[in-house]
Write a structure and sequence with these properties.
alpha+beta; 27% strand
Length: 135
């Protein structure tokens, strides 16, 4: 099976940074980086915790003091976070991307700006493909 170059690039951009070292980046912060999150603590809201399985309403309430960017109806991004992992901070991973399935948190990742851009592009590409297929 032969993969298209654009498919390979999207796949590589979506994968966690812990699996790949940047091959062509001019600096360590140019490549998309992502780290899984088990528990997200909203310090600005009395240390409320967000975990997998939390509802969209619970997330909205816990992170109500943060600005939400909706990458899609089921993928939300919040910036301004700081990890308790030096490597993630060194790679400027300060945005949390939360994915919902059936209205509940299914995945949370701490990512850098290139990863947010790659995720948004992947979602947009997927949406365009669905629109074309439905015609």
């Amino acid at each position: 099976m032969k993969a298209r170059p654009s498919s390979v690039l999207l796949l590589a951009a979506a994968l966690s940074a812990s699996a790949f070292a940047p091959l062509f980046a001019s600096s360590k912060n140019d490549s998309p980086r992502a780290y899984p999150i088990g528990v997200l603590t909203a310090a600005s809201n009395g240390d409320m915790k967000v975990v997998r399985g939390a509802s969209m309403g619970d997330v909205s309430y816990a992170l109500r003091y943060k600005v939400r960017q909706e990458l899609s109806p089921n993928v939300w991004a919040y910036s301004g976070f700081h990890a308790n992992l030096d490597l993630a901070n060194d790679q400027e991973c300060g945005t949390v991307v939360i994915t919902f399935v059936n209205g509940q948190v299914s995945d949370m990742r701490l990512v850098n700006k290139p990863a947010v851009a790659a995720i948004a592009a992947n979602l947009k590409l997927g949406s365009s493909a669905r629109n074309i297929a439905s015609k």
